């Protein structure tokens, strides 16, 4: 097994550095391409093979910082969200085109507070009705649908548990994190599947001045509360059995890593709780 690395020379292409103090806020990869969001509201799409030798595609996606970026499974569409309270979706006109002329705006949705996380339906490019889910400062998880004739509809599927800053979508499963923990639902029916309480990270000690090779150093260390750490979610493998479909969700929060096996074979009106 061999692994190939490609270094993007920093600063990134000259046009990115033309904005004083601009920094990258989020990164999302698809195949050989990388999408970058910045704190000035720009979206960059770079060639992961050519690296910084090419200037890439630049779009003004938001009026404020980009908070999240999401590809669909086909790599034909990108969703972004930001502090300007907007979710924007752009798409390629063909599977072969990656130049600036090949990208076009698909839809834009405005909300009442900053949007911290967004995920496109992995099947966005193939479906007649196209969906994304988004969440942010107001604690609402919104399921957005764009119909065949361009009509749109937003449904709030969860609220009241604190800001949402992480969402993961794979197959029919959507998971998201708020201040209480992680919730999982079936994407097509919006029915709840499970709830994982937020793990305690109160004992985690962090040394802000720690340097590599300085393992024995204890001076200057301090405890950080669990609220200081962002939850990270990743849907892993899928297994199809005679009794239904199983998928593994990996959860990382502070110094806690959990594996959650989700299986749904019969509709249920109760929400199981996973004990940490």
Account of the protein in words:
It is a single chain. This protein has 276 residues and is mainly beta. The protein is built from one helix and 21 strands. Helices cover 1% and strands 48% of the residues. The two termini are 35 Å apart.
How many helices? The count is 1
Report helical residue fraction.
under 10%
Structural class: mainly beta
* Main β-sheet description: 4 strands, antiparallel
- Tell me, rounded to a whole number, the average pLDDT: 82
Question: What's the alpha carbon Rg, rounded to whole Å?
Answer: 20 Å
Record field, number of beta strands: 21
Tertiary shape: globular
β-strand percent reads: over 45%
Distance between the termini: 35 Å
Main attributes of the structure:
about 280 residues; mainly beta; 1 helix; about 50% strand
Q: What is the element layout, followed by pairings?
A:
Elements: H1 14-17, E1 24-30, E2 33-38, E3 42-47, E4 57-60, E5 66-71, E6 77-82, E7 86-92, E8 103-110, E9 115-120, E10 130-136, E11 141-146, E12 152-158, E13 166-170, E14 173-177, E15 181-186, E16 192-197, E17 205-206, E18 222-223, E19 231-241, E20 244-253, E21 256-264
Antiparallel strand pairs: 1-2, 2-3, 3-4, 5-6, 6-7, 7-8, 9-10, 10-11, 11-12, 13-14, 14-15, 15-16, 17-18, 19-20, 20-21
